[in-house]
Design brief:
By secondary structure, the chain is α/β, with parallel strands linked by helices. It has 14 helices and 14 strands. The chain folds into two domains: about 210 residues, Glycogen Phosphorylase B (Rossmann fold), CATH 3.40.50.2000; about 170 residues, Glycogen Phosphorylase B (Rossmann fold).
């Protein structure tokens, strides 16, 4: 694994649900210094209550908690930039604001010749400005396809970033195929914290979270952000067709999804709200089947869902949309794009003895742990650094 390096990382907010970014950087921070920069936003804000709260939170964090030490080696920085994108004047102002703030804290923390690493395309203005030894762009989504994102502006930023970065890594084959024209993009799929999720294998009903202990079985479950990329209409129809089943959705309801009372109002549908990462194995233990109920569209065909390997590590049978990255697990995963297909797939799992299959499912992803993925990433970085030295 990479050792003794300084890393500046542009990413999502540290405080949100753990994503691949969190897993990677928390491991690198054991032997490297990491400055994690919270998201500066990819879409223009709206007048919704959620966006107003988010905006005030960003401003508050900048003035009251600008630099927060998470561990001995990992610090989180909140930047202040203008919340509008796609305007040339705003972009120029934001570039100056971004670079000057990061440069100040880079020097304050004693970072020397850092690795400049971004999980987001709007950090491209910082590349080449921070005396970095190596630049890396790590792509986990097609950001041009998210609702509300300025697709054209993002495409321009991303094209420049891919061309400028010394190293480009993607988490899904479709991202490589779509973004990799004329550029060598390395494919590294997501890992799993197998030790964490396999705790579910030994859990009993007394270990289940309190808010699901008294919910009628079977429980058909999902955890993650409840956003507009989920097929909530399919879930509504499935819940109406199978009133004897309980559907449990664990996660924050995003502003983009709008009013979901048509689903949440059903008697056999239960929304628990957002839960901590530490609690997820217990929810997996309470579930009878885990769902990945995504719509199939231009956004999701580039997704490599973390929860696939997390569900499997917990010994949980999985019913998923036919996402390209999930198809590799067709021997154990069942697929559904309609409510009727979902019901059929779940029924087929429910007649199986989960106690007999859960350890087999978990072992399928035991070698896909995050430590090995970070070692693989480190190898690419070290090779790129050596090549620069040789030049």
């Amino acid at each position: 694994m990479l050792k003794g390096r300084d890393i500046i990382c542009f990413s999502n907010d540290w405080q949100q649900d753990p994503l691949s970014k969190h897993h990677i950087m928390s491991r690198l921070a054991k032997q490297n210094k990491v400055l994690w920069i919270n998201s500066i936003g990819l879409r223009n804000p709206t007048a919704t209550r959620m966006d107003v709260i988010k905006g005030f939170t960003k401003i508050k964090n900048f003035f009251t908690n600008r630099l927060e030490k998470i561990t001995g080696n990992l610090s989180v920085l909140n930047l202040l930039v203008l919340p509008f994108h796609g305007n040339s004047l705003t972009n120029k102002i934001n570039k100056r604001l971004l670079v000057s703030q990061v440069r100040f804290y880079k020097n304050k923390l004693g970072f020397n010749k850092p690795i400049l690493w971004s999980f987001l395309p709007n950090a491209e203005s910082a590349f080449g400005q921070l005396d970095e030894e190596l630049s890396l762009y790590y792509i986990t989504d097609d950001f041009t396809k998210f609702t509300g994102h300025p697709a054209r502006a993002i495409a321009v930023m991303e094209e420049r970033l891919i061309g400028q970065a010394d190293l480009v890594i993607a988490s899904a084959r479709n991202i490589v195929d779509i973004k990799g024209k004329g550029k060598n993009i390395h494919l590294i799929g997501h890992g799993v914290d197998h030790q964490h999720f396999s705790r579910a294998l030994e859990m009993t009903s007394k270990d289940w979270p309190e808010d699901v202990k008294n919910i009628k079985k079977p429980i058909i479950g999902f955890y993650g952000e409840i956003n507009d990329w989920l097929d909530l209409e399919m879930l509504r129809r499935a819940a109406e067709l199978k009133p004897e089943w309980s559907f449990v959705l664990v996660g924050r309801v995003a502003v983009e999804v709008g009013d979901i009372s048509y689903l949440a109002g059903l008697k056999n549908v239960h929304l628990t709200g957002q839960k901590k990462f530490d609690q997820l194995p217990a929810y997996c233990a309470a579930f009878d089947v885990g769902l990945i109920p995504m719509k199939l569209n231009d956004l999701t065909v580039c997704v490599n869902p973390l929860k696939l390997k997390e569900y499997l590590a917990a010994g949980l049978p999985v019913v998923s949309a036919r996402l390209p990255e999930v198809l590799a697990y067709r021997d154990v995963v069942k697929f559904a794009d309609t409510a009727e297909e979902l019901i059929k797939a779940v029924d087929e799992f429910l007649i199986q003895d989960r106690e007999q299959i859960k350890h087999t499912l978990s072992q399928l992803v035991a070698s896909e742990n995050w430590d090995d993925k970070v070692d693989e990433i480190s190898g690419l970085i070290e090779k790129a650094l050596n090549e620069r030295t040789d030049d």
